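Notebook entry, structure prediction.
Reason for the run: the old model in the group folder had no record of what sequence produced it. Starting over properly, with the input documented here first.
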Amino acid sequence: MGVDHTAILGLYAQGLFPMDDPSADRRRVPEELPWWIADPRTVFELDEDSRAAVRRRVRRSLRARDDWELRISTAFDEVVEACARPRGPGDGVWLTPRMHALYRVLHAAGHAHTFEVWAGGALAAGMIAVSLGRAAMLESMFHRVPHAGNVLVSRTLDALAAGGVVLCDIQTATPHTLRLGAVQIPRAEYERRLRAALHS
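New structure, fully documented this time:
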């Protein structure tokens, strides 16, 4: 993998994303981290109407507590470590130690961040994001408090839009992200929108 953040960002700029394979034979290419494409690609739209629709879908979660607080990169390593834990029995882990090292390299260069929801003074949910130009790639998330994950998605989308981001990429869909309002677009459209986000 190396430590050259410009090479890593160059792969993101081509529309690729990293996911490690712990079962790979490290004796063959121990330094090579797998990079992937997805077709279709899954995104959250960041226009006001789309974000308002997400807020409506998670309004119960937003109202569940009155002390939800969004913070950015105040517990970076804790969030990455929590995202790396298996969600349940038999769940694979793609966020390996060398993935954590990649995110640390990007964080040091100002391109990886964690969006965090805190409640009652404790970390309730967190998400890893890689930023490049006006694009944000949401890589992984976790929650440990009921409703906090939904709150995190909604608050993060609002924060990205407020910061001028125009493309929010989540790579592949899950039933939950589709329920929240994520949409799938053809790879060619994603790459066109990515180029525009990188050069606007």
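Summary: The first strand starts at residue 17 and ends at 18.
The old model has been moved to the deprecated folder.
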